Amino acid sequence: MINCTRVPGFILQGFSVIPEVQTFSVAIFLFIYIFSLLGNISIITAVTLDSHLHTPMYFFLKHLSFIDLCSTSTTLPQALFATLAGSEFISLPECAAQLFVFVFCGATECFLITSMAYDRYLAIYQPLTYGATVTQQFCYALVGVAWVSGLLFSSFHTANTFTLSFCDPTVEHFFCDIPPLLRLSCTDPHKHEAAGFIVSGCVIMSCFALTVLSYIRIVATVAHMKSTEGRQKAFSTCSSHLITVVLFYGTGSSAYMRPANGYSPLQGRLAAIFYSILTPTMNPIIYSMRNKDMKAALRKLYVHGP
C-alpha cells in the first residue's frame, strides 16, 4: 500500500484520449444520445396518451423507457464534455451521485425486466385469469418493488465504493463506474470487491433465474398450443422482451461479474458503451419495430400530434 492523500475529485478521460478520435466520438455519441432521448420520450408519450396501450405490458414498458432515459442522461452529457475537452473534473460528491443514479437505474431495470417476464408468463400461461390477477394495484406493486430494490442495491454499492480512500484522481473511463474506481483505491479493495461481487451475483443471478423460469413455462405453454396463429402471437409479444433480456444481461454481467484485477480500461470502456449507451438506445427500436400496436401509436403521435 502507498502513502495515501485523499483526492478532492476525479478526472474523467472521456471516450478516448486520442485527439483524432475525440471529435468523431463526440459526433457519434451526441447523435446516439439525441436518438435515445427521442425514442424513449416517444414511447413514454405514446403509452400515456393512447388508451389502447393502457395495459400492464405497456405500463412496464413506460417505466423501462423512463429508466433508460435517466440512465443515459446521467452519463452521456458529461462524457461528451470530457471527450471534447480531453478531460473533465468531477468532484467526489458529484462522482458518488453519478454512480448512485447509474447503478440505481441499472438495478431497477434488472428487477423491472424480471417483472415484465413474469407478466408475459401470466398472460400466456393463465390467459383466462390474467385480467383478474394482473390488476393496476398488482402492477404498481411490482414496479414499486423494482424501484425500492434498485434504491437499496445502489445505496449499498455507492457506500461500498466510496468508503475506500482514493489516491489517483485519473479515471480511465467516461463516467464514474465501480470497476475503474476500485483500481484507484490506495487501500486494499479486496473486501469491498468481494462484498460487491456477492451482492451483485445474488441479485443478478436471482433475477436472471426468475426470468429464465418464466420463459421456460412460456415455451412449454406455447408448445402445447394447437393454433399456429396463437403460437405466433405469443412469440411476437415475447420476442422484443427476450432481445432486451439478452442485451441487458449479456453486456452488464460482463462488467460487474468479474474481478477488478482482470479489468482492462479499454475493455471496460467498450463494455460500458454497450450496457450504458447502446442497450438503452436499442430498447425503443426493439419495442417499436416488432410491435404493431406501438408502431400504430407512434405513427398517430407524430402524424396527428398529441
List the defining traits of the structure above.
3 strands; mainly alpha; 10 helices; about 300 residues; three-stranded mixed sheet; Rhopdopsin 7-helix transmembrane proteins
Largest sheet: 3 strands, mixed
Helical/strand content category = mainly alpha
CATH overall fold name: Rhopdopsin 7-helix transmembrane proteins
CATH architecture type: Up-down Bundle
- What is the CATH class name? Mainly Alpha
Order of helices and strands: EHHEHHHEHHHHH
| Strand residue percentage | under 5%
Q: Please, could you describe this protein's structure?
A:
The protein is mostly helical and 306 residues long. It has one domain (10-304): Rhodopsin 7-helix transmembrane proteins (Rhopdopsin 7-helix transmembrane proteins, Up-down Bundle). Helix content is 76%, strand content 3%. The protein is built from 10 helices and 3 strands, in the order βααβαααβααααα. The chain has helices spanning 19-49, 56-85, 92-125, 130-133, 136-162, 178-182, 190-223, 228-256, 265-289, 292-304, and strands spanning 9-12, 88-91, 170-171. A 3-stranded mixed beta sheet has the order 2-1-3. α1 (19-49) packs across α10 (292-304) and α2 (56-85) packs antiparallel against α3 (92-125). The chain is globular and about 65 Å long. The N and C termini lie far apart (60 Å).
Record the SSE blueprint.
Elements: E1 9-12, H1 19-49, H2 56-85, E2 88-91, H3 92-125, H4 130-133, H5 136-162, E3 170-171, H6 178-182, H7 190-223, H8 228-256, H9 265-289, H10 292-304
